[in-house]
């Protein structure tokens, strides 16, 4: 029987629902100016969301059995962010909003069904 990191089973379904971009879609998105234009940049460099996106791509590239407890903690953070941020959406022009761009940096496209 495969052993998974503690807490992985608890977060897996929420993570799978929250992160609806494929690794390739997310990588391509992170290369765009729109992606780089949003988020908190504490040191003037890469934003927190952009860093998160790169970490999400790495986690998505792992087999479930390769996910570490650090990854599980990050997955919980991503789920929390997506749930919180999703509730604050704009009433118009969602497609070109900084709100959507921020969510996409965290692996979630609110327009993707």
What is the count of structural domains? 1
User: Which secondary-structure class do the elements indicate?
Assistant: mainly alpha
Computed Rg: 14 Å
Largest pleated sheet? none
**Gross morphology:** globular
Mean pLDDT: 92
Which parts are unreliable, with pLDDT below 50 for 5 consecutive residues or more? Answer: none
Distance between the termini: 34 Å
Beta-strand share of residues: under 5%
SSE ordering: HHHHHH
Please report the number of helical segments. 6
How many strands?
0
Tell me roughly what share of residues is in helical segments.
40-55%
Describe this structure in words.
Helix content is 55%, strand content 0%. The mean pLDDT is 92. It has one domain. It starts with 7 loop residues before the first helix and ends in an 8-residue tail after the last helix. With 113 residues, the chain is mainly alpha-helical. The chain has six helices and no strands.
Please tag this protein with its features.
about 110 residues, mainly alpha
What's the gist of this structure?
This protein has 113 residues and is an all-alpha fold. It has helices at 8-18, 23-30, 33-36, 48-60, 69-86, 98-105. It has one domain (8-105).
Topology:
Blueprint lengths: L7 H11 L4 H8 L2 H4 L11 H13 L8 H18 L11 H8 L8
Helix pairs in contact: 1-5, 2-4, 4-6
